[in-house]
Amino acid sequence: MANSRGVLAGFVLFLCFAETCYGAGVSFSTLPRTLVVTASPKPADVLKGGESQMTVTWQVNQSLPAGTDTSYKTILVKLCYAPISQKDRAWRKTVDDLSKDKTCQFKIVAKPYNPANNTVESFQYTVAKNVPTATYFVRAYALDSQDKQVAYGQTTDKSKTTNLFGIEAISGRHVSLDIASVCFSAFSVVSLFGFFFMEKRKAKLAQ
Question: Does residue 47 have a pLDDT over 80?
Fold first, then answer.
C-alpha cells in the first residue's frame, strides 16, 4: 500500500514538473513593452481582404537602456483581433499564456534582428484572403534564440481600444461570375416567355 502511494505521489510530481517545463507558455503580462510599432491604416479604416496593402514599421524604443535588446533574435509581427471582435467568440479568446492565446492568429512577417543595427524596419503587407471580417490591431514580438517571446510592442494602447482598423473578408465571388449569373437569369426569363408564346401560337394553329 505504501509503495502504491509512493508511486502515485511520484507520478503526480512528474505531471506537475512536465506541466511547468513543457505545458505552460510565456505569460504576456510578464513581457516588457520595448518595441515601437506603427501601421499605416488610420483609425476606422476598412481594408479589403486579398487586395488592400498596409505598411508596418517597428523598432526597439531608443529611450531604453543599452543592452535591452541583447537577447532579441527575431521580430515576429502579427495581425490581432481587437476586443470588440473577440466578444462571444471563444476561438479568438485572449489568454495570458501565449501558448494558448488566440488574439493574434495571422502572421504578417518575421525578420531576424541585429542589436547592433537598431533602425526602423518596415514591411508592406497585403491582407491575406483568409483573414475574416473583424476589427484589428498589429502586434510585434521580440523572440529569443529559442523562439520564446521576450518583449512586445503594438499599435494600440494597453486596453486595445485605440488605433484600430477593420478588415472586410473576401466574398469568394468574382465579378465575372456575378455578371454570368445575371445574364443566365435574364436568358431564363426570356426563354420562359418564348416557350409560352410558342405554346400559345401552336394552340391557335391547332384550332
Answer: yes
